[in-house]
Design brief:
The structure is a single chain. By secondary structure, the protein is of the alpha+beta class. It has a single domain (8-164), classed as 2-Layer Sandwich (60s Ribosomal Protein L30, Chain: A), CATH 3.30.1330. It has five helices and seven strands. The strands form two sheets. Strands 4-1-7-5-6 form a five-stranded mixed β-sheet. Strands 2-3 form a two-stranded antiparallel sheet. The two termini are 14 Å apart. The structure holds magnesium ion.
Length: 166
């Protein structure tokens, strides 16, 4: 089989969920947001960045964040997910991939996310070495239904498009 002579587009999908608990900071897209509850997890539990990392790894067929950053490994306890994202970006770059764009949706009942979106785009763009306008972040609620609506947790979905360079 011949290798392709032009960049090959690839897409990936990521999903993550974390519990909302008291006594934890709420970190989303690398932004610490003042709130009564935060997300529980081994790292900073940044559910948005976790979904984005899984989308990127999925686009490159490189597994998932559980494979690359096991939650049993003490070196990742409390770590900023922005640092893990930068590592994923370097991994893809080393394999000859370039980012086209990311589109992500956060699902949580409160607080309002919109005021923080520009900083999230800047943080994620900086970690990946791309312009923030390649990073789309949207947010919605659970409309008072399900675990999100009961404020038990937050979820995030993300898709990523990358190019496999020849
Ligand atoms: Mg996670």
């Amino acid at each position: 089989m011949r290798s392709a002579e032009h960049p090959i587009p690839r897409i990936g999908f990521g999903y993550d969920v974390h519990q909302l608990v008291t006594g934890r900071p709420l970190v989303l897209g690398g932004v610490a947001i003042a709130h009564t509850h935060g997300l529980d997890g081994h790292s900073d539990a940044d559910v948005l960045i976790h979904a984005i990392m899984d989308a990127l790894l999925g686009a490159a067929a490189l597994g998932d964040i559980g494979k690359h950053f096991p939650n049993t490994d003490p070196q990742y306890r409390g770590i900023s997910s922005v640092r893990l994202l930068a590592h994923v970006g370097e991994l893809l770059a080393s394999r000859g991939y370039a980012l086209v764009n990311i589109d992500a949706t956060l699902i949580l009942e409160a607080p309002k996310i919109l005021p923080h979106v520009p900083q999230m785009q800047a943080n994620i763009g900086a970690a990946l070495g791309v312009d923030p306008d390649r990073i789309s972040i949207k947010a919605t609620t659970g409309e008072a239904m399900g675990f999100v609506g009961r404020r038990e947790g937050a979820a995030a979905h993300a898709v990523a498009a990358i190019l496999q360079l020849p």
